[in-house]
Specification:
The chain is mainly alpha-helical. It has helices spanning 10-18, 35-48, 60-72, and strands at residues 54-56, 76-77, 87-89. Helices cover 38% and strands 8% of the residues.
Length: 95
């Protein structure tokens, strides 16, 4: 299944469209509201501008869950970040 910008709800699209491309931003919503999908779409939008982009996740489980979505958006999981290809990374575990 491919998720695109048009698959986001009107409210999600409006939120993404209103964010400037610079700076850090916080999205606060309840579970299941699509925050991870918005983050993946935002990472793609930034990468397409040529901005080096890394999408960090809080846990490896979340990274594994959204990896197919990021991949379907035309990005790369744990690959070389480049134009249109944000890097998706989970937490680093030190032993």
């Amino acid at each position: 299944m491919t998720i695109t910008y048009l698959d986001l709800s009107p409210a999600q699209r409006a939120s993404l469209d209103s964010l400037p491309f610079d700076g850090n931003h916080l999205v606060n919503s309840p579970p299941g509201s699509g925050k991870s999908l918005m983050a993946a779409q935002r990472a793609l939008m930034l990468a397409l501008t040529g901005t080096p982009t890394v999408l960090l996740t809080r846990s490896n489980l979340l990274r594994q869950t959204i990896a197919p979505v990021v991949s379907a958006l035309g990005t790369q999981d744990h690959g070389g970040a480049g134009l249109g290809r944000p890097l998706l990374a989970g937490p680093v575990v030190r032993r």
